[in-house]
Amino acid sequence: MHSTTQPVAAVASQDRAAGDHRDLDVATFDDEAYSDPEMAWGYDVDQYDEPFPGREPLRWNAGADLGLLILRVTLGGVFMAHGAQKLFGLLGGPGPGGFARMLQQMGFRRNETLALVTGATELGGGALLVLGLFTPLAAAGLVGVMVNALAVKYGSGFFASSGGVEYELVLAGLALGLLFTGPGRAALDNGRSWFRRPLVAGFLGLAVAAAASATVFLLFHGRP
C-alpha cells in the first residue's frame, strides 16, 4: 500500500515556493467562476433587476381612466333607462302603476312605495355613475337593487332567454366592481376622500348595499 503523504507534502512545498498561499483543506481549483456568474457565463446579472426593456412599471394610467369612464357611462345609462321606465313610463316602460303591479305579483307589499324607491334609485344612481359623483353610494344603491332582483328570480335558471338571472347578475357584478375600483380620474369624485381610499369606500358601500337589501326584504317582501 502506497503512502500519499509524500506527494501531498511535495505539492505543498512547491506551492509555497511559488508564493501560492491557498489552504490545502479546501479544493485547489479556482472557484471564482462559481461565485461570480458574470465571469462564469459572460453576462451582466444586474440587468435582471431592471424592468424589461420597453415595459413601463405597473401604475395607474389614462387607459384605465378611459375604460372606467366607458364602463360608468354604459352601466349608468342602462340603469337610467330602467329608472325612467319605472318612474315615468318612458321608453316603453310600465310607469309607476304598472311596475307596482309587477312587484305585487312578485310577492312584495307596499308595492307603490317600493316602485318609486326602486325607480328613483335606478335613475339617480345611474346618473351619478355617469357623472362619477358619489360613486360608492351610487354603486351601492344599484347593487342593492340587483341583489333583490336576484333573490326574487332565484331558482329560475341562469340564462336570460329562459327567464334566468344572467342579466341581473351582469349588472350586479359591474356595479360591484365599480364599488371597489372607484370611478377613475375622469369623474367629479376626483380628489375627494373616498376617491383616494377606494378599498375602504368599497367595503363601506358593500355594507350599505347589504343593509339596504335586507331592509327592503324585511319591510316590503312577503305578506303582512
Runs with pLDDT <50, length 5+?
21-27
- The amount of beta strand, in percent, is under 5%
Fraction in helix: 55-70%
Whole-number average pLDDT? 83
Helix run count: 10
- Major pleated sheet: none
Please report the total strand number as a whole number.
Answer: 0
**Please, how many domains?**
2
Approximate shape: elongated
Termini Cα gap? 107 Å
Q: What is the H/E string? A: HHHHHHHHHH
Cα radius of gyration in angstroms? 34 Å
What is the structural class? mainly alpha
Keywords: Cell membrane, Membrane, Transmembrane, Transmembrane helix
InterPro entries: DoxX, DoxX-like_oxidoreductase
Membrane topology: Multi-pass membrane protein
GO cellular component, one term: plasma membrane
List the helices and strands and how they pair.
Blueprint: H1 5-17, H2 32-35, H3 37-41, H4 62-88, H5 95-105, H6 111-131, H7 135-152, H8 166-181, H9 193-196, H10 198-220
Helix pairs in contact: 4-5, 4-6, 4-8, 5-6, 6-7, 7-8, 7-10, 8-10
Keywords: Cell membrane, Membrane, Transmembrane, Transmembrane helix
Transmembrane segments: 128-149, 169-188, 200-220
Organism: Halopolyspora algeriensis
Quick recap of the structure?
By secondary structure, this protein is an all-alpha fold. It has helices at 5-17, 32-35, 37-41, 62-88, 95-105, 111-131, 135-152, 166-181, 193-196, 198-220. It starts with a helix and ends with a helix.
